[in-house]
Monovalent cation/H+ antiporter subunit D family protein
Amino acid sequence: MNLWQSVDPSQLISLSILVPFIGALLVLATGKNPNLREGVTLTTATVLFTIVLAITDYTFQETVLRLDIIELFPGLGISFEVEPLGVLFALVASFLWIITSIYAIGYMRGHNEQNQTRFFCCFALAISSVMAICFSGNLLTLFIFYEVLTLSTYPLVTHAGTEAAKQGGRTYLGILLSTSIAFLLFAVLGTYSVTGTLDFQAGGIFNDNDNKTALGVLLVLFCYGIGKAAIMPFHRWLPAAMVAPTPVSALLHAVAVVKAGVFSILKVVIYIFGLETLTDLSTTDIMLYIGAATILLSSCIAMTKDNLKARLAYSTVSQLSYIVVGALLASSVAAAGAALHIATHAVGKITLFFCAGAIMVASHKKNISDMVGLGRQMPLTMAAFAIGAISIIGLPPMAGTWSKWYLTIGALEADKLIIVAVLMISSLLNIAYLLPIPIKAFFASSSNISGETAEEAKPWSWSETKEAPLPILIALTVTSIGCLALFFYPQPLIDLINLIPGVSTSMGEN
């Protein structure tokens, strides 16, 4: 039964944005009582997810939900409209907010973090911005809330208050704001000057008479202006932000920020350019190969990092460009794979970051070289890490299998064999920098690595375990199950993706 059936359907959009905003205010009001504050956070996150589920139900019924807030200029204002790609992103973000909140409670308490009220407040504000991005009805609305998301997450990046945190925050804010001002703003203005509208429309808003050179320039401006997609060389903000607490890293890499970037690129490609227009632009292949280079180069850099979060950060840079490449292939199947990768990468990568935080809380280890034999102390955490790693690699029976499958099929459909090769090589690199971590944790000992004489192996016992607090274990267990569940039961997401105009998981269909 739809809990929100008595509410005007279009008002569900405003509720999805207002509920986390109100939750942020309530977090501030209850800050002196940690239990009440965290209860408010979990309740707000759960309510938001039920609202998004109701919106999803209307989407499957093909009911158009639109909400116009204010007209700033003739025919141009802040407006929202529900479409399937935005619903997919909203489902991922709202569900993972619940899980990340559970995780954050265990992490922030277990790590004795300061300023926890500010943390939960800014987290809620970020989710409110994400919901507005998901349901943006035009480029102006998307641009405004894209910037709000940047500003609302800055206090999270600098949460620790150390000089390193402040420097990371400056890099984060500097790159994201400068790319928005130097590129994205001009892309939005250029689009309006060519078309006279900024509304998202099925099949795109450009027509055959528009100057293809100008459109090619706009494509480059969009790709680099949406800095949250972390296309090289505008990727440094992402590893710089790793100074933040692990729940923030999970927010950045799976729930909100980077996904807002690749979602925005995919939405611009589908609803502003249109896949057919994209095939006629000379810069499409240029940006496609830059995205492919980002996949490989960031994977190679990841292999050199001993710090676990730094390795995962460069892994994220690589995985984001899977989505960018999927969009720029201008293939309906590749676009479907890119959309699905938003969800599959989210559950896989958030699992890995949850595990990294669990290791830090329980054993105070940050470097991979110090994690040899850790599987005896943290078997549940390292098993979850293995599941997340296999999903990111794209091997059965994990979620990442399907999105990489559709991306590969889409590259073949677009006759881009070099992209197929990039995807295959990247998967091998994923194996090289991810799988050795759980393997060494379970099957090697520090004595083996150091060359010392190993004592006779002792049977493993539960008494050796020193896992992170229960909320952390609950969160990483749920996301691990999600990696498995999306492999065996991906159909609801695939059905949703097939509702996106011009996008299909079947070859030859548009």
Observations:
- Confidence is low (pLDDT under 50) at residues 449-456.
- The CA atoms of residues 329 and 357 lie 36 Å apart.
- The radius of gyration is 22 Å.
- Strands lie at 66-73, 76-81.
